[in-house]
Design goal:
Length: 251
């Protein structure tokens, strides 16, 4: 067992929650407290009724998510939203959310973890958002085809490929989630191959115009890495069990 206050204090410091700017609805940190004790840690990409129900069924009482309870914005606690909050309270579930702090963390972050499993070398921070670099830029060390195979194996699913850049990538940019709309900014930073989760329709045309490779692995799939790594880190630090709750959206 660990004290909720100690676990949250450590998590806030480790992820630098107070130092990293984010979107207002992210509301990083503890979003819902429980009675004060943590016996099992859970990890999920999204705070949803399904993830909360799964946490309750498996004995999780501290749930780490990437997209928190308030991601849709201000809303009255009625209907499905009331049911979700009621379910979490009934099972004494604490919910902790980390968005950009988990994207950009140099060890357990989504981008750091993805770069590591892809075997990319000499990664450095790049692409600024909310006042800090959130992605990683690395040197290419394989053909585009080999990179795609590695990416599909890492994500456990197909990758949408817009092969408008070199067959032998020299500079690869990685920004997890829905960063495809930032393709022009990414290209300005010298990237010839851009890996992200999803993109708007016009980004495919932009990739052709910019002559860069655009690889879309899925918003959900590219953001499973951080919550898993962070939950595992907390579990080891506080000697607690942990479990990943997998509810892919298909996006």
């Amino acid at each position: 067992m660990a004290a909720l206050t100690e676990l949250v204090r450590y998590a806030n410091e480790y992820l630098r929650i107070g130092a990293i700017q984010d979107y207002e609805n992210a509301l990083n940190g503890l979003q819902l407290e429980n009675g004060g004790e943590v016996h099992k840690i859970g990890a999920a990409v999204d705070a949803s009724s399904r993830s909360i129900a799964a946490a309750a069924q498996t004995g999780i009482d501290f749930l780490v998510v990437h997209h928190g309870m308030f991601w849709p914005g201000l809303r009255p606690i009625t209907g499905a939203w009331r049911a979700q909050v009621k379910l979490a309270l009934r099972h004494d579930l604490a919910i902790y959310s980390a968005h950009l702090p988990l994207d950009l963390h140099p060890v357990v972050g989504n981008n750091a973890q993805l770069v590591a499993v892809l075997g990319l070398q000499n990664a450095e921070p790049f692409f600024e958002a909310k006042g800090q670099p959130i992605g990683l830029r690395a040197c290419g060390n394989s053909s585009r085809a080999e990179l795609v195979t590695r990416l599909e194996n890492s994500l456990g699913g197909p990758v949408k490929i817009f092969a408008a850049g070199p067959a032998e990538p020299k500079t690869i940019g990685v920004v997890s989630g829905g960063a495809g709309g930032e393709i022009y900014g990414v290209a300005r930073e010298g990237v010839d191959t851009f890996i992200t989760g999803e993109a708007p329709h016009w980004a495919a045309i932009a990739a052709e115009e910019l002559q860069i490779n655009l690889l879309l692995g899925g918003h959900y799939a590219t953001e499973t890495f951080g919550v898993k790594a962070f939950a595992a880190h907390l579990a080891e630090r506080f000697n607690l069990p942990w479990e990943f709750i997998d509810h892919p959206t298909g996006l």
